[in-house]
Specification:
Blueprint lengths: L4 E4 L8 H14 L1 E6 L7 H14 L15 E3 L18 E4 L9 E10 L8 E5 H6 L3 H7 L4 E4 L11 E4 L2 E3 L6 E3 L6 E3 L2 H17 L5 E3 L8 E6 L3 E5 L8 E9 L6 H4 L3
Amino acid sequence: MSIPELDARSLISAKDKAHVRQVHDHLRNHGALKVKLGFLDPDSDYLRQIVLGLHEHHGHGLPSTHSSTRGWFWDVRPQPETIQHRAISETMGDFPWHTDSCYETAPAKFFALHVLQHDRCGGGTLSLLNVERLLRSISPWAKQALSEPEFRIAVPPEFSKGDQRSFIGRLLSTDEQGQHGRLRFRDDLLTPLTPRANAAYCELMHTFAQQKKTQVQNLTSELLPRGSIILMDNGRWLHSRNHVRDAGRHLRRVRWDARPFQKPLSLLAQV
């Protein structure tokens, strides 16, 4: 399943209802979209307007505020090693497979990355794996077990709010129409709490290991250069990043439409 692409020739595109509709339709149908900007946009005005348009015309929730100083956007670039509790995305090391904000009780449904400066040394490749295809290879009983709140999910120190260090939740959900399986995942943060959960998680990881051999899409700097934006349905694609080689690499991220991770509608009638 290749990622569709869309051109935005000017900032006016972000306020064009037909263009916003195309973005919405690609996210709904494919769960992902690449946009090529035909203009300089150092402040990510296009991305801001697109998210507002999706909210106004297509019912998307507004973005999560990252902080009182950064607002909706988070600048993702290597930070000095002396900074305590750096997020993995702010290091130059590998960022293993995950979904964004999986440590939130209400993870963001969508996220986007604006490439302000790609890695000019060949690193920082974004890799993607489709969750729907992954789930097709998992048994029904395992999907049922992954849908139960039988997993401890740790909260990284850099994202801890108050005294909360972890919570109990499920790994599998669906959207409001029950159409798309949505996964919450980051292996270093997840602990199965029951034999059933452990067996299901082992099956998930086994299938995942097999699909990584053939089903991964790698978006190198050549495929996602400066001036590119990628928008993702967070629960429908797993993603990872290999080590960054260019200390000047600079992405800008926004997450929006945070929603509780509910039990899949397709399984409600079975329990």
